[in-house]
Amino acid sequence: MSSRQDDERTSPESLLDRIRSLRALDIEVASRAALAAVVPLVVLIAIGHIEWAPYASFGAMTALYGRSEPYRIRARTVTVAAVALVASIALGIATALASPSLIVLAAGLIVVIVAGILLSATAGLFPPTPIFFVFAYTVCAQVPTRAADVGLLLAVAAASAAFAWLLTMSGWAVRRVVGERSADWFKGLPRRGVVNPVAYRDAEVWRTIAQNVVGVLIAGALATLVGIGHSYWAVVSVVAVLPPPGARHSTSRAWHRIIGTLLGVVVTGLILLPAPPLAVLIVVIGIGQFGAEILVGRHYGAALLFITPLALTVSRLASPVPVSTLLFDRAVETALGGGIAILIVLFARARADRRERGAAGMPA
């Protein structure tokens, strides 16, 4: 290789171009999310209580909010998200303590969906759906819990959320140190979360709430009726697919969810079936969170190749069941929830088309 080629490879301009290309992949956000997920789990392993992994993991989801927001706005949105996540975990724990019937579980789920969508629309949260609140509630509600452990479990969730909050805000201090060079090293912060105190008056918000409530109740009921374990995955799949208020209804996300999950189940099987040690599972969670954050805004189906191993590995830590059962439940219930979401999306699109034709004076 010529010396000129060597100079081009190591020149400041070439390195800067590479840095900018990496910046575009949201390395900063993905790194924070991975650390937020892994560090609390490492602490739990060190103190011998890995069974508390679900509470730490859901608290850590605080790091998934505030993406690309200026820090003044991010402080508000991430705080709101942290409080909402811990509240969802607390409601799940309370439901678990009550030895819940299906009616109690469903009532709690409706509360989380209504409050989550209203809160997201009011506080301008991004992601703008209640998926993480629903996931936290449904899992924690079905983990056997002792009353004597409630304080500790909530402390684990709150501590994990606080650590994720600090990580999410840490870029402010780093940017201050770097100064003018921060534009070359870090992703820009263009997003402005808009507070809407009258979101509860928006018909679109209530239409979205209705779609989510109907979808999760049908999905949960069918999953329970046919006796599939981990019925919350069908519920979460519905919430993951349905769009936030005002967004276009599309079936593509549902198909991405189903196909991406099925492929992700294959990947997870290759990881979990050999029964790897605990340290490997923690690494898988870190890589899964990192890859999910890199890809989720670009291709949802590809992101699920990381999201699925992440979710199943956390489930494995929380409730050790045969891996084959875990994989089967995830695949079947995702297909069930995704299918129900597709039907709701098609129904919503048909109604929207009729409204548009009616407004234009055309026959319905």
From TrEMBL:
InterPro entries: Memb_transporter_dom. Pfam families: FUSC_2. Keywords: Membrane, Transmembrane, Transmembrane helix. It is found in: Membrane. Residues 218-344 form the Integral membrane bound transporter domain. The keyword Transmembrane applies. This is FUSC family protein. It comes from Cryobacterium tepidiphilum.
